[in-house]
Design a protein that fits this description.
The structure holds 2 protein chains of 2 kinds. Chain A is an alpha/beta fold. Chain A has helices spanning 14-28, 52-56, 68-80, 99-106, 109-112, 142-146, 159-171, 220-232, 251-261, 276-288, 310-316, 320-334, and strands at residues 10-13, 32-36, 61-63, 84-89, 122-127, 152-154, 176-181, 188-191, 204-207, 212-216, 238-242, 245-247, 264-271, 297-301. Chain A starts with 9 loop residues before the first strand and ends with a helix. Helices cover 40% and strands 9% of the residues of chain B. The longest helix of chain B is centred in the N-terminal third of the chain and has 26 residues, at 19-44. Classes of the chains: A alpha/beta, B alpha/beta.
Chain lengths: 335, 341
Amino acid sequence: MTAVESTTARSLTYVEAIKEAITQSMREDPSIFLAGEDVALYGGVFGTSRGLLAEFGPERVVDTPISESGLVGMGVGAAATGLRPIIEIMFMDFIGVCMDEIVNQAAKMKYMFGGSARLPLTIRTMAGGGMNMAAQHSQSLEAWLCHVPGLKVVMPSGAYEAKGLLVAAIRDDNPVIVIEQKLMLGRPAEVPEELYEIELGKAHVVKPGSNFTIVALGRMVSESLKAAEVLSADGLDVEVIDPRTLQPLDTATIVDSLKKTHRAVVVHEAVRFGGLGAEIAAQMQEEGFDYLDAPVGRVGAPFAPVPFSPALEREYIPNADKIVAEVRRILGKQV
Amino acid sequence: MPRRKSKVADGTNPPALTDDVLRDIFERMVRIRSFEEEAGKLMESGRIPGALHLYVGEEAVAAGVMVHLTDDDQITSTHRGHGHLVAKGGDLGRMYAELFGKAGGYCKGKGGSMHISDVEKGMLGANGIVGAGPPIAIGAAFSNKYRGTGNVTVCFFGDGASNEGTFHEAANMAALYGLPVIFLCENNGFGEYTRQDRHQAIRDVADRAAGYGMPGVVVDGMDAVAVYETAGEAIARARRGEGPTLVEAKTYRYFDHVGVRGMGVVYRDDSEVLEWRKRDPIDLLGSRLEELGVMTREQMDTLQERVLFEVREAIAFAEASPDPTPDQLLEDVYTVTAGAR
């Protein structure tokens, strides 16, 4: 089942949705523990685990030293020996100091061992810019992870997805990286009260449309919806697709959309060059060449580190205006 | 040679060293030696693909530690991992089959020497990344403590790995959380080809324990009984919930970093190898067993013949094992989650 249609949905912020997913999952399954820097006493620097220490105690909500290699490796060892860890990497940029544990250990252990290992490991991390935190606290590095066989990668686009995808990640028996985004922390959405999961590997058509497809990752879904509204004045009926899971990617849903719209743009906050948009565009051309009436466009950040100055960062991060411009460019070539 | 030896903890008695335990340690060492010597020949004759890091010379460490452990106690291993799995009771046929890259191997031929593992026996894998073991080991130890199993985890690593940040992060966390883990440093004097005095400014890796608030002990890694006693104290301490210990076993690698003779580059004198071989761990224990009247020379010879026979049977099994088929290439990348909703 993809998700529960709840009669008890109420407005919950993205951060509350994450906390609720962890809380309800931990109540359900005693083998789950949460570990990370400042997750217990402080409740997470973004508040995603506030109150959990009081409910579950220090055995299950574990503050760690600032030691990302040790932290993620501990998650790998605990997952391989019967537990279901949730490991928090405070900022996504910090995966640079625990890449071996993610890429060489967690991702490959099952395969290297001929299938005999099982790694039910969830790694949550906060990505994205927009808060003037500069080059080492603002990146979107999902493409690095999607490139590695053995990992699953999800990127929720709002509070509803944040809860449902996190629950699915926790229940999955593989290492799953959950990429959260800072700019959505306070953003509310309708979220069912009960525990539900969103099936991994299934894209969601956020807004059906008939003559243009936008595939958008994470927070770029809402920017794409704004762009779609602007473009409706141009007579475009844009379909917006949220892949939700980036690895494995639901190519079928994307190609199905192309069959009716014949044109597409892929949008992400990450740097455009070598970003996941390149892979999605390539798959569209491989699987949907006959349906395409124009090259697949891509919107992403320019090829520079994330700048600090608000004046520069505003320019750097993709938004609805840039999506509109790219769609019009594609159509311009077309006309 | 060890310069000092300190007690792991006050009031801890090493587990009783019975004649049966002595014979058990000796047999495990003979099995490792025999397995590795034959593996070396197979690699040098081109019958085993890839690289092998052989454990010959270091047998007293694996054997002296592993007799304390059950299948429910875990170990993390290194790139020089065959000896650990042999000592932990690994199936020699499945081990050789893995070295050959055959479907009947421990990892169905997908891992090879550097990823040989037996999760059922608590062997959480040899590892191709130096220093990868310590964080994984503290995770297994965390799991044991969390589940209240009373089991321990032994993290094998080398003097080279003691310079990796992962070791330091894991040591700090293990001491902080009081985890039931033993950091077992096999100091064979070289980080790959770089001698210890050229890769760290200390002589005893055990000194590093002080920086993390845990006991650090040096033991003669060529003396299986000494390893047995010291590891036994550390393991008993961990089982009692008193936290981690760093044990440094001073040992020596007879063969090259890779293979037997390596690439022919001279980085140490033959005389040094011969000097260490004078204190060969199997000879040392053998003499002791003879003096104690635990085993006669004839019994030891018979044991060695029996083990060599088992090793040859294991090689025959491995050679007869089929290659993995192309349809297995994409299997085991992901676990199909049971009851996925």
